[in-house]
Amino acid sequence: MTAAPQITNKVHTGSKRPRPPRGRPKLRTSYAQDMALLNTPAKRWSTLLLVVIGFCAPLLFTDDLLQVLTLGLFAAIGAIGLNLVSGYAGQVSLGHAFFMGLGAYTAAVLGGDSEGRLVGFGLPIYIWLPAAGLVAAAAGLLIGPLAVRLRGLYLAIVTLGVVFLGLHLFREANHLTGGPGVGRRAPDLEIFGINFSASGGIPGLDWTRDQQLLVVAIVFLIIFGVAARNIARSGVGRAFSSIRDRDVAAAVIGVDLTGHKVLAFGLSSFYAGAGGALYYTVVRIIEPTGFDLLLSVQFLAMVLIGGVATISGAIMGAIFITALGRIAIEIAHVVPFVSTSVAGGGLLNIFQLEGILYGLLIIGFLIAEPRGLYGIWIRIRNYWKGWPFSY
Amino acid sequence: MTTFAQAVLSGTAQGAIYALLALGFVIIYKATHVISFAQPALMVIGGLFSYHFSAVMGWPFWPSLFVAILLGAGLGMLIERLALRQMVGKSVFTMAVITIGVDVVLRVLANRYIGADSRVMRYPGGGERYEFLGLAISHRQLTILAVTLITVVSLALFFRYAKAGLAMRATALSQETALAQGVRVGAIFALAWAIAGGLAAIAGTFIATGSGGSEQDTWIIALKALPAIIIGGLDSLQGAVIGGLAVGIVEQLTAVYQSTYLPFLGTNFSLVAPYALMLVVLLIRPYGLFGTREVERV
């Protein structure tokens, strides 16, 4: 804590934090107000509304939509992690899939049961979730020093190599991972004695698995999201940004490059590990070959399409990219030349359409709106802020 | 000893393909400072062009290859013009990710053509093999080595003596100075992508004539050129060739010896050995064996 808030406390006696004067909600009287998480009334109300809608969603949507949304929210945890290292700290990482895989398998080994040759310890979530993050973070700390020596695209290629080495590892360690083509079951999400992974797990409510998991997803995303926002607006986050913008200049003003690059990789991998562990509790089966380059590219797409160096952007991007498969199906219903069967017929099937959409969205956003979905939101907001004027 | 020499020889033939791909990466990098992740798609599609002309339309092998090179070059120029030209001056990371997007789109289209089975291209030399000092080399491997040698030598001559080659070297040195001297830098970007597309088409064609043919997963082969260029250094042409050959030889040697001497690394470790080699080289030399060290100014 700095001394600044205490000084202002003396001026505004009676309240712990200085508040803007009555009737002038946008007037700042202290630095802390400007840096607050929700620094305008509109943000406070819209966040509250979003959270309320989120918790009501299980009653509003059908199960298949809820599952897509849940997957999107858990993927958002991983996307926030990638945004910390690539968006805030500017260290391009194509290795995110490897860290997610590490987290998912750590969770499965610690939280799952041993069946046949598979190793499992059957520990509760209080152990397997932090462990999933920590094991991935440890691997991230090992990659971190490479980031200190390498720059830009060299680092991107090395992290790409890490994905291939990781895939090999996951394939070979088949008493831990189940082996390619088979995989193993993810652990159940059981918190406070309530099994959210089984339908009707919450006593008194006759909810399905998908309804329950969505509630858990929202809670976890809020925890991880708020933590990441706090990292981003603290000194560490500002050091990350300075390294991204000009690392030599950052070093000159006293930012510890080595420490912060390694820390960025560690934090990002922690998010990836925890996100991966949670994501696969919804997917249920963890298959080793799933952690390939494509998964890394998907997460990169989430960050780029959502908005580089924004937490809300990463969440929007993650939900959007996760829903892309579903969107492709919806398009197939409308457009005649897209077939819904894998066998072919029509010009494209839905998976091919999904792939093409990925690629085109990445290209289109980078060329037309580099700030991503977040940028589109900013444009809409500014339009209404200045309405009826255009400035 | 014969086993060792045989592994090196087979590795060199495979490495020649990587060297062609690596040259494409390096030429694009030198001209535009972008690593093109679209190379895998260009390779697969180049191979499919050859396949289509020879297997479906019944052309002989060499004309198919020639037309595929031209089409591959055209495709490379098209990508540069449509997706990258307007991004000149933006961060290299943004441009690299755009090429990932291009790669994803093109590969979906290529895989749609390939379908479920592999597309094996008939090679005119058949399975003929030659014995030489106890070493066996197939007609196809000899052709790959010869074609790579001719390509590399003609590229070297082009860069040294041709006017366009000189312009490319000038652009690689400094884009603004080259522009001031009357070099059309935009045309150089297009030329670099065209050369890379053509090289990828040659590599793709020879991979399609291999035992596996062109499959849904063939594109992963092109990524092995990435360790090659990293080992050689991103901006070094001879580094790309040496790196490519090194990757091929290391891959082959690992395939032969690893199961006996390092069995704990697991089966098929040879497929990822290039990446392990890359990590080791980078820990010792962060800019590769022949790359130039970046000078940083604030």
From TrEMBL, chain A:
One of its GO terms (cellular component) is plasma membrane. The chain crosses the membrane at residues 45-62, 68-85, 92-111, 123-146, 153-170, 213-232, 262-280, 300-324, 331-350, 356-377. The keyword Cell membrane applies. Its main location: membrane. Residues 13-26 have a biased composition (Basic residues). GO terms for molecular function: branched-chain amino acid transmembrane transporter activity. InterPro entries: ABC_transp_permease, LivM-like. Residues 1-12 have a biased composition (Polar residues). CDD domains: TM_PBP1_LivM_like. It is a multi-pass membrane protein. It comes from the Bacteria. Keywords: Cell membrane, Membrane, Transmembrane, Transmembrane helix. This is Branched-chain amino acid ABC transporter permease.
From TrEMBL, chain B:
It comes from the Bacteria. It is a multi-pass membrane protein. CDD domains: TM_PBP1_LivH_like. It is found in: Cell membrane. One of its GO terms (cellular component) is plasma membrane. Coiled coil: none annotated. Belongs to the binding-protein-dependent transport system permease family. LivHM subfamily. This is Branched-chain amino acid ABC transporter permease. It comes from Nesterenkonia alkaliphila.
